Amino acid sequence: MTGAERSLLVAKAKALKALGHPTRLFMVEELSKGECCVCSLVERIDADFSTVSKHLSVLKEAGLVEIEKRGQKVFYRLRATCVTQFIGCIETAIRENAERYAKLAR
Amino acid sequence: MTGAERSLLVAKAKALKALGHPTRLFMVEELSKGECCVCSLVERIDADFSTVSKHLSVLKEAGLVEIEKRGQKVFYRLRATCVTQFIGCIETAIRENAERYAKLAR
DNA sequence: ACAATATGTGGCTATTTTGCCAAATATGAT
DNA sequence: ATCATATTTGGCAAAATAGCCACATATTGT
Known about the structure:
Two copies of one chain form a homodimer. Chain A is built from six helices and three strands; from the N terminus they run H-H-E-H-H-E-E-H-H.
């Protein structure tokens, strides 16, 4: 593997890892419906403001979202829209295995 | 969010998290070319046999791969083929942001 | 039964991740 | 200037993860 290939692999893994947390995945699903500010996400998530903010920065670092400041608010937007598609695909794969479902959800 | 919705969210996050490690992502990319045994993967990855085995079990637990024992070998097969598609999509998203690329790959 | 090959597991340490709190920063309103 | 609102950051302790070693298990061939 070349250095560039390795770098790309790591970057892809970083993006996937960012999606690999229930709270962050939920955020991305919410963002897929349209941009929203941090405060709006905090309302929909049972976690500290600072926790939400840190999760968002993980998504940003991974290149999955971008921000725009308007007034005192910061709006987050989903960058890779294909992410939405994929989540659906993963969902299908999981549902296919209905009998393993309960176990996987643990 | 209902309990079932929450369970599905957690299961999806688990699958994404499983993909979110360079070694496991590489394994999945290799498996997308066709099934292969653990020993074959060990040859392509610079890590201990036990490490490779554990990574594979993470992928299995997440429902992404399935196994078949033949003789003394255990063959792993990619279950969610859409995963391949998605990796391409993530790759595109990453490449789009060429100027951020070097930073993301860190 | 014994040896060889292939794989999985237990245990351990180092590292990373989470999530909360408190404090810092930024922007707009009074 | 002061205050309120929105967001980020630093710090910390608990939990999860990664990777190696040694050992256990399974299968095949002799």
